[in-house]
Each structure stands twice: as C-alpha cells, then as structure tokens.
Design brief:
The protein is an alpha/beta fold and 120 residues long. It contains 5 helices and 4 strands, in the order ββαβαααβα. Helices cover 42% and strands 13% of the residues. A 4-stranded parallel β-sheet has the order 1-4-2-3, with helices on one face.
Length: 120
C-alpha cells in the first residue's frame, strides 16, 4: 500500500494516483478541475472544534495528533469513511492524501498517513 500526501495547491502528477481530499472545507480559490480530486472525504477531517483549537500551531501538534486519532477510532462516521479510504487504497496502486494547509508537517494528512501505516 502506497499512501502519499501533498498540498492540493501543488501541481497534480500521474504519480499521485488517486487523489483524496481530507479537508472539511474546499480549498479556497481552487477550482475542482485544478484540484484534480478523485474523492472528497470531508467527514474524515478533524471535527470543527478540534480544527479551531489546533489552528495549525506546531506546538499543539502532539496533542492534536492524539485527539484526532481518538476521533478517528471512536466516531462512527469517521470509521465509515476510514473504511471507504481503505477500499480506495486496496483498489489503487497509489493514493495521495491532499490537504490545503500551508504547514506540510503539522496537519491531518500527516496523522492519517501515519495512522494508516500502523494499521498494516
């Protein structure tokens, strides 16, 4: 299973494979054509409360990661969307989790990628 991550604002490439947007809100100023998103799993994104608390503050990232994983593992809707994401991954050679955050190391796609790797 190859799961990559990339900012949705970066140029789509063939190597991206299936592009899955994991943000709750559509990326500002980006058309659907330019985003080249195959699936939008907005329900898999962190809750609005968690997102507002985190505010992409790198110092809060360890706590954000823990809280987001708790959401993934306890929220029924998120579990259903994890199931859909796993189906996409199983059916594809390559999957890229795309996100809008400017910080490439402290965002939900990083947490999802690591969490999925630990599910093997």
């Amino acid at each position: 299973m190859q799961v990559n991550r990339k900012r949705v604002y970066e140029q789509p490439e063939n190597e991206d494979g299936v592009r899955v947007l994991v943000d709750r809100v559509w990326p500002r100023g980006l058309s659907k054509q330019k985003a080249a998103v195959d699936h939008w799993l907005k329900e898999l994104a962190p809750s609005a409360e968690l997102r507002k608390w985190f505010q992409h503050d790198p110092e809060k990232f360890p706590d954000f990661k823990q809280k987001y994983i708790q959401e993934i593992e306890s929220d029924q809707t998120k579990r259903e969307h994890i199931g859909k994401l796993k189906e996409i991954i199983e059916e594809s050679e390559s999957v890229t989790l795309v996100y809008g955050a400017k910080d490439t190391e402290h965002n939900q796609a990083v947490v999802l990628q690591e969490w999925l790797a630990g599910q093997d």
